[in-house]
Amino acid sequence: MMKFLLALVFMVPLSFLGSGFWFSQCIYMSLVFIFIVEMSWGWMYCHISYFMGVDLLSFVMIMLSMWICSLMVMASEGIFKSGYYYKTYLLTLLILLISLYCTFASMNLFVFYLFFEFSLIPTLILIVGWGYQPERIQAGVYLLFYTLVASLPMMVSIFYYYLVAGTLDYFFFMKSVEFFMFYICMSMVFLVKMPMYFVHLWLPKAHVEAPVAGSMILAGVMLKLGGYGLMRLMQVLIPVGMSVNLVFIVIGLVGGFFVSLICLRQGDIKSLIAYSSVAHMGLVLGGIMTMNSWGLMGSLGMMVAHGLCSSGLFCLANISYERLGSRSLYLNKGLINLMPSMSLWWFLLSSSNMAAPPSLNLLGEIMLINSLISWSFYCMIFLSLISFFSAAYSLYLYSFSQHGKLFSGSYSFSLGSAREYLLLFLHWFPLNILVLKGEFMVMWI
User: Fold this and answer.
1) What is the pLDDT of residue 31?
2) What backbone phi and psi angles, to 5 degrees, belong to 53?
3) Where does the NADH:ubiquinone oxidoreductase chain 4 N-terminal domain start and stop, copy by copy (predicted)?
4) Does any domain span residue 46?
5) Nearest CA among 381, 396, 393 for reference residue 254
6) If you placed Cys at 15, which of 67, 91, 123, 316 could pair as Cys (CB 3.0 to 4.6 Å)?
């Protein structure tokens, strides 16, 4: 595990090379394939070195982080061409990937907490440094304070658990804690990060103000930190969770339904995709909180699927934004007349977003529906509403942006570059091919 960390650390000088932009992207992509070949997995942790190791859950999350980071560089050609501090930009992306790698690979709760919080800093720099509007400062403050307010109690609860159990290594997490305040302090930071309805307002702001790479990493990986943390710590929280999880399942499902209605009223493409993330992660939260194997498997599948699908949709929104200079749905109309080939990708990723076959979203959603209905039959009401409105806002996004009368006369008549089509293909192809290997989600349970 240390060799991959050292490989990333030694990429730092590469960020400052004049020709290092596309070379960095090639190295990221190479690391992904080397990581796949090197890692074998089983029931327990393997490839253990110092404080790091991987089981299947860590493996999937690290893979997703590396994949999304390599695509982030590919999506950021605009920053490279403009020459706007692109070397610093590359360095920020690299530091972010290193912190995510250490977060997912660590086998100790305190080390996990340390890098979990550290990953906030490069994300903040991305939003404030390369964001689009003056409101990015406010978005950065939202992101910072939502996370910090919830994370300081978690640090206290980590020390308390060390006092009770005598260890912070995941492998020795045998002792559960029957203490309500411990449950709230430990899980709240993950609920903010997911984000759960009621503590979700930082997400649309951060997404709308972030550059394309910021949106991709937020949707693709940062939201998954919350689900990953809850999965890791749920065994410690079981006694209190048996009586309290009901509340969070209800918030996840009812909030998912409300947010789906909010999506139908959005005029901003990025805002609509950001709110759809809240709805999907509400399902993931419900699946984890049921504390059964279907829920955990479905949540893992849904997190990977959402990471690829949502990241791809943000790339599409950026492709339109680069040409038109606006993210408004009222101006981005009739694109099928100008870029018919791009409309295919809009359709494919919108259909994946509504969990149409053969996407991994469908597999994850089926597992989550099994989990939640076995927990309580009444969940069927909100699950059916979320599924229906998920299709409604995905079709709304597609039809509103592709059909209709063309408003803008200043639109570039480019049919899209090979780089853009490759970028979208590398989001969509893994999303739809991973459904063939659904048994991997069962292996870590």
Assistant:
1) 93
2) -175, 170
3) 1-103
4) no
5) 381
6) 91
